[in-house]
Amino acid sequence: MKAGEILLLLLCLTGIYSGVIAAGPPTCPVDTGADCSDTDDWKGEFFPEIPKIKYEGPSSKNIFAFKWYNAEEKILGKKMKDWLRFSVAFWHTFRGTGGDPFGAPTKYWPWEDGTNSVAMAKRRMRANFEFIEKLGVDRWCFHDRDIAPDGKTLEESNANLDEVVALAKELQGSKIKPLWGTAQLFLHPRYMHGGATSSEVQVYAYAAAQVKKAMEVTHYLGGENYVFWGGREGYQSLLNTDMERELDHMGRFFQAAVSYKKKIGFNGTLLIEPKPQEPTKHQYDWDAATAANFLRKYGLIDEFKLNIECNHATLSGHSCHHELETARINGLLGNIDANTGDPQIGWDTDQFLTDIGEATMVMISVIRNGGLAPGGFNFDAKLRRESTDVEDLFIAHIIGMDTIARGLRNAAKLIEDGSLAELVRKRYQSFDTEIGAQIEAGKADFELLEKKAMEWGEPKVASGKQELAEMLFQSAL
Ligand code: XLS
Ligand code: NI
Ligand code: NI
């Protein structure tokens, strides 16, 4: 092909591609004939075809029924709903468009009118609560800017938020509340260098003002936790970054958040959500261990817990179970963002967790932790780009809830059976001796240990029983 032809071809392709993007969402109504003007009026239900989701048991073939999640059933002495404390993530469920770095949105929910108006935000909020009620959960999670649009000034953004939050409060009734709220400090261009770790003092102040307001509305709505996910708190290059100064700023930011929480009487738990990278090349809250070290250094270890997200765990090169155990043994396991990645895709795909083995491992940690309350399981998970029907929103949550419920049942079976725990107990039994107890109490010095080593001669080393452990684990699935 000649250079001129190549240029023509490229121009055509560009035209087609930008045409797709420019087409944008169709104007409302799409296929329902419902009233969809520039007000939050919406005549009728948002999900008329979907029944209230009930438990029907494992033999049910009804796609709109739970097969494993039976809210009132007791497992290990506690109701399933109290172990699991499920929550719907507003941003994925109601703001997710299916768009990705390579393509335009694929989802146009019938109630959307293509605007980011306050009226649209309120209509979406009504959809949120109908969804939550039909699904039968009691909790939801949000960012300030997913539920209400940015205004031209901070005052206007706060006023928009207040208007939508007032409606949310009314729609929540007495049973539903936020599992957590958070501030979105990553989408707006002002946050391109971060919020609390920005090189610009004005941005630091703006981020603080946004968090202050987001904490106030979370408190007003009865939220049980408040999350900090450091979306752009990290760096792209150490060459232009003063890492020590940025981390000190982040420490100060969190200390101020603790003071403000106390000042307004918010008793919810503050949570840091670790993630290793994306969108920044390196995110400061890399993983649970890094976040724990940060909290200790800045005197915040008793003021915060961690929100472990399974997809972030795998991005940091760990398993979700590893991150949960690291958080748990440090007294920091506060909440789980229940999702999973794809083993063949390298980014945060935020899929619903459907792997029963992984869910069982997750629930082993949760049971060891005595549950997550006041935390819970937030479905920080989205439909695949290709799932475009409204009913897919329900199906995705049902499979996600059933998978974790199955994990709970399996983990309980393992605990009640006791064989795996017995294997672990036996593995360490050499420490259940006088000298072992001395070591564990910090009373065995090197001279004593040298004396014992000489007395014992070459150590006897027992089998690690890895395959037996796997066999016992699988027998519960
Ligand atoms: C992004 C995070 C985000 C947080 C809330 O990767 O998971 O969704 O949970 O800001
Ligand atoms: Ni998350
Ligand atoms: Ni994530």
TrEMBL record:
Key word Isomerase present: yes
Q: Does the keyword Transport apply?
A: no
Q: Which UniProt keywords apply?
A: Carbohydrate metabolism, Isomerase, Metal-binding, Signal, Xylose metabolism
GO MF annotation terms? metal ion binding; xylose isomerase activity
Q: Which domain of life is it from?
A: Eukaryota
Q: What EC number(s) has UniProt assigned to this enzyme?
A: 5.3.1.5
What processes in GO biological process is this protein linked to? D-xylose metabolic process
Q: What class of enzyme is it?
A: isomerase
Write out the catalysed reaction: alpha-D-xylose = alpha-D-xylulofuranose
Signal peptide as annotated in the record: 1-22
NCBIfam families, per the entry:
PRK05474.1 (NF003998), xylose_isom_A (TIGR02630)
Instruction: Give the protein family.
Output: Belongs to the xylose isomerase family.
HAMAP family named in the record: Xylose_isom_A (MF_00455)
Q: What is this protein called?
A: Xylose isomerase
Organism whose genome encodes this protein: Quillaja saponaria
